[in-house]
Amino acid sequence: MQDGKKRVLIPIEKASLDAKMDFYKTQNGAIVGVDNTLLIKLKDKKYLQYYVAEYNILEWKNIFSTLYKFVLSDKSQTIDVANKLSKEEGVEYSHPNFYKKKVAR
After folding, report:
1. CATH code of the domain in which 25 resides
2. Is residue 1 part of a domain?
3. For residue 1, what pLDDT is reported?
4. Domain for residue 4, yes or no?
5. Taken in order 78, 82, 85, 91, is the CA torsion positive or negative?
6. Is 2 inside a domain boundary?
7. What's the average model confidence in pLDDT over 39-58?
8. What separation in angstroms does the CA of 2 have from each of 46, 81, 94, 96, 99?
9. 75 pLDDT above the threshold of 50
10. Are the CB atoms for 37 and 78 separated by under 8 Å?
11. So what's the pLDDT on residue 28?
12. pLDDT for position 22
């Protein structure tokens, strides 16, 4: 996470939910979806090719400056890979690309 704080995610049963995503409940009770994409901000672009190769990234897209969207082959690895990348020297932050249901106010 950008603020360096860990977030607790509790897996939710997949029955009747979107098969393209895994769903979790946050500490605040919000439901978030996680697919096979993650967001990563590098300290320097020179690290990009190393992480793409090291973590078997299928595709990547530059969003802005040193912010990238990585696509993994398996959604079940998204949180684990994001956590591992966040501990790497050349990574400012890394987290799954969370999807949250719109709530009417």
Report:
1. 3.30.70
2. no
3. 47
4. no
5. positive
6. no
7. 96
8. 21, 16, 8, 12, 17
9. yes
10. yes
11. 86
12. 87
